[in-house]
Write a structure and sequence with these properties.
Strand content: 15-25%
Shape: globular
Number of helices: 22
Helix content: 25-40%
Structural class: alpha+beta
Oligomer: single chain
Amino acid sequence: MSIPLPVKIYKIPLLFIYFTLVFSAYSQENRNLLIHSLNRKQIAENLNSAKKWVSYPAYEEREEWSKLPDEVRKTIIKEGEAYLNYDWPIVKASMYLEFTRTGDRSKDAAVNSARKQALQTLMMAELVEGKGRFLDDLVNGVFAFCEQTYWGASAHFYLYGFDGSIANPTTILPDIDDPIIDLMVGDIASDLAWTLYFFKDAFNEISPVISRRLTSELKKKVLHPFYERNDFWWITGWGEGRVNNWTPWCNFNVLNVLLLVEDDPIKKQDAIYKSMQSVDLFINSYPDDGSCSEGPAYWAHAGGKMFDYLELLDKAIDGGIAPVFAHPLIENMGKYIYRSHINDGRYYINFADAPLKIKHNPGRIFRYGEKINDPIMENFAAYLANESSEKDLVTSGTIGDRLRNIFLLTSLNEVPVEAPKIKDYYFPDWDVVIAREKANTGGFYFTAKGGNNNENHNHNDVGSFMLYYDGKPVFIDVGVGTYTRQTFSPERYSIWTMQSNYHNLPLINGVAQKAGGNFKAKGSRYRMKNDQVHFQTDIANAYPNEAAVKSWVRTYEFKREDGLIVRDHFESEKHKNAINFHFMSALPVALKSPGLLEISGDGFAINMRFDQRKLDAIIEPISIEDPKLISNHGKELYRIVYKWKEDKQKGDIKFSISAK
């Protein structure tokens, strides 16, 4: 049923011309898939009214909720019982102040996380059981959130304004008169909007004040700021169109709240169109190969959140953007997640701010695969679900995630369980190659990159690689540790995990790679010959002038069952300081004989041969203290340092890596 447009229209700033002009300098192409698919008038004509887009049974439809599998219902109810008579914690002002005083962003985040988990668990338990046992605790939670000045993170106070760097916000405590929308504000608002949707009548039986108060807070904290402001960078990209995963993530949450809370049709229609323009910027920013430069961990919050947004928008406007899902870019953005998968549903190509081990939501991957008609993606989702416990599927994530997964369980059980094992692939825009020895987890898996040092969540890693054997990491990208204020500040590259010296890369004349778009690979070439993969790239430009390097051509020859050869051919303007070759591993390393290192894995050993006449090998243990890194690698890593012994301005170095 279409909603007629009244004569008087409520105005929300729609920056279409501004968006398009500003972003053109940065986009791959001004595709504008959304606003080309659906104009403002068509939104009004197609917008589902009265929340008909919601596909879940209402709280009062007890028969439908009782049809869920008994074990699922029992699990959800048991989880909820742990929060009966819950003492809702508060975020103290001193917790917010920790960020600007010490850089610690964890204290306020921990309380917000605990509150979110309580709300999500109580709501799902009451939905499933339906006896009112959890309602009082839910009401307590609603009031606790309503009385909280700000639902977001201290690390995002820069949205109020900042001095020089986002690590120096001009406001260091939340300002109730200046509401800002960050990722966490959106997540909590979306959960609360679902709570209001399902329990509004039940709350009204207790007191109409509950729903009125919650509606008021959702409008003040989220909807009104979105209607009235365009200076949140995730809407326009710092006024320059430079956006990242925040854009689909925040817009998805705003859209969810908008559809569940706003009753004014004109405000709703205008805000939908505004969000479409913003998400178009994100889609425009993506390369044709669909690669997520932020890494596969961020895919869930980048391409994955974009899919959540598109799926929700499509439901709200009754299938009005269906052609968008058939666009090659949207398909590639989905396929990226299985093309970057290495093994075990946990190991992915973890360039940039990605940990070694990643856990993805099978439901999102399955729904994405359905929309783009990709059975490989659907089967991968079934594989991930099979590797997870049913409890994880129905008791983790936002309320929206839990609802979607609960009602997907049957579908996930009906498709074949199969992990994708791409034999070889090259992302031309990301400049990343992958290849595996066999069409299973056995033998070697190899990946390497060219790229540049201005990628989202960048590490200085142009030319680096990873190597796995029998599905286990041998040469690694260490990944990222626990986020602090330093992580997103001018001091980012003082963190060792961000530096090229702690990637599988050379140190040239005592100088490491530098961050920035000008520090990049050039002349990358990928080719397949006799089933062998060759990848070559010149990484000299990734180093600053003081490295005094003319060219540094790194070549990878992946010979599948015979292993990997890494070659460096380089020429310097002068040889004045150390030239070292670094390799990172989480496995024990030993020098077995001159020119031979052995890396010991679980049930396998890898040999690394080098020319001892040109190189001295040193093995440096690195003790790990960061809890996030420990969870991925244990308490110790190893850096292999090869020191070049020759006093020349040119050199050719070869490393041969094979299974013992």
